[in-house]
Design a protein that fits this description.
The chain is mainly beta. It is globular. It has 2 domains: 93 residues, no CATH class; 369 residues, Maltoporin, Chain A, CATH 2.40.170. Helices cover 14% and strands 56% of the residues. It has 6 helices and 20 strands.
Length: 466
């Protein structure tokens, strides 16, 4: 049972117990009660909203979240998580829980923060980043997540004060034949940095609010054959987006297919997918969809060397509404990817190459070709070095509402990094990043040199077991 009690001032009293009756075991029922989970979540939400502490917290974060909560109320989120998990909460509170808090202070320098070919000034800044990672586990249920914030201040070429919020959540529930999963959460960050590393595009220097929900289900049919299904939801908004040429959008999609373990070293997956993308506040509304199929092969050459290759077509259809007409277009895009990962005793290397279709804050779909190399090496037990390099070739799949196509852009970055755990609870990181960007509309490419210095304190890990 789980009880929430309050008298006078706001407080919690938890009484976790895990109880599985013999009668349930005899008939083979699992301790799941979806209605109980939903009722509890909704009642807890109402109690939280009515108390002074909850009001205080909502007022502090209400500004960053106001653009999202117009379409995503807290009740909907609780219902969504309850539907996806559906686990008896008494089992959750009987798990082995752990909490790892941390706080970091980071100083940054960038010679060309916006990667512009125009005249610009150097930018300096500092970050203060408190965070806490939590995890819980039972025989069947695993829950993990993170609560983090970044308080950012920039000076020089770009003067700005930002607050980033990171609330990812991962849930896994397994039975003898089924595996239910959920990944998602909320993130508020700066779109210049976050979308640059994902899409290879430089958008604008503004804050992005993004909700994601990705439930999945895997069903074992035989020892070697299983069925997989997943759904994805992405709701993204930008602060002052229209003024900066950015539009809000939503993305819905799903995929399903078969996974076959051919041998101990070989695995094959055949799946079909459908994705729908549409803008929500664009002056010229845009909508696109791209169903497709995909074949993936994974081969373990040795215990430490693994390779994966996949590919398949996507059939893109788009519609742009203008004042006088609806502009429709269709195309076929072949997506592909390959990766090779090798592990040594103290070194790991990964090489990857892929092509993907991604949504963009410009209000259209883009095609991103990317290649990357990641190397990490443990010099000693307390000293580690890593290198990350990626190159991007970005082009528009769908046409702009004003006519014409999106100009092709090219971007790559190189980042060596050193991390030193000089005390039991202290860690020091130092990195350098070289960035290079070019586009068809540039007369000369843009380059940047950036350094980062970060000091992080990790208090002792907290553990709780019932």
């Amino acid at each position: 049972m789980f009880r929430l009690m309050s008298c006078g001032r706001f407080r919690f009293r938890f009484r976790p117990k895990l109880r599985l009756s013999q009668s349930s075991e005899k008939v083979g029922r699992t301790p799941l009660d979806l209605s109980h989970s939903l009722n509890f979540g909704l009642s807890l939400l109402r109690k939280l909203q009515a108390r002074s502490l909850a009001s205080f917290l909502l007022n502090r974060i209400g500004g960053p979240l106001c653009g999202i909560t117009r379409r995503w109320c807290l009740n909907q989120i609780v219902v969504l998580v309850g539907l996806l998990c559906g686990a008896e909460l008494s089992a959750v509170w009987a798990a082995e829980w752990s909490l790892l808090p941390s706080i970091g202070v980071k100083g940054v320098y960038n010679s060309n923060l916006l990667l512009t070919p125009l005249p610009h000034d150097e930018t300096y800044g500092y970050w203060v980043s408190p965070a806490a990672e939590f995890a819980g586990k039972t025989e069947r249920l695993e829950v993990s997540g993170r609560v983090a914030a970044d308080f950012v201040s920039y000076y020089g070429g770009e003067q700005n004060n930002l607050t980033n919020i990171h609330l990812p959540l991962t849930v896994r529930y397994k039975t003898e034949k089924d595996l239910l999963g959920f990944t998602g959460g909320f993130i508020r960050d700066n779109t210049l940095m976050s979308e640059l590393l994902t899409t290879g595009l430089v958008l604008r220097f503004t804050q992005r609010n993004q909700w994601t929900a990705n439930p999945s289900w895997t069903r074992s049919i035989t020892e070697k054959l299983s069925f997989q299904y997943s759904f994805q939801l992405n709701d993204t908004t930008y602060e002052n987006g229209l003024r900066l040429g950015l539009v809000d959008y939503q993305l819905f999609g799903g995929s399903g297919g078969l996974l076959y373990q051919m041998t101990e070293q070989d695995q094959m997956q055949l799946s079909g997918s459908y994705v729908n993308f549409h803008t929500t506040n664009a002056p010229s509304p845009f909508r696109a969809s791209f169903p497709g199929v995909n074949l993936s092969l994974t081969h373990a050459f040795t215990e430490t060397l693994t390779g994966t290759a996949y590919g398949g077509p996507r059939f893109v259809s788009s519609t742009t509404q203008t004042v006088s007409d609806n502009i429709k277009a269709q195309s076929t895009v072949w997506l592909f990817g390959a990766s090779l990962a090798k592990k040594f005793e103290s070194t790991s290397i990964k090489v990857n190459l892929d092509r993907d279709i991604l949504p963009s804050g410009f209000g259209l779909l883009i095609q991103r070709d990317r290649t990357g190399l990641t190397v990490s090496h443990d010099l000693t037990e307390t000293l580690a070095a890593s290198f990350n390099g990626s190159g991007y070739l970005v082009s528009g799949i769908t046409k702009l509402a004003a006519g014409g196509t999106f100009p092709e852009q090219r971007y790559f970055h190189l980042t060596p990094k050193v991390a030193w755990k000089f005390l039991q609870w202290w860690k020091l990181e130092l990195s350098y990043t070289y960035g290079w960007r070019d586009a068809d509309s540039f007369s000369d490419p843009a380059m940047s040199n950036a350094t980062m210095f970060m000091l992080t304190y990790y208090p002792p890990k907290l553990a709780l077991s019932n």
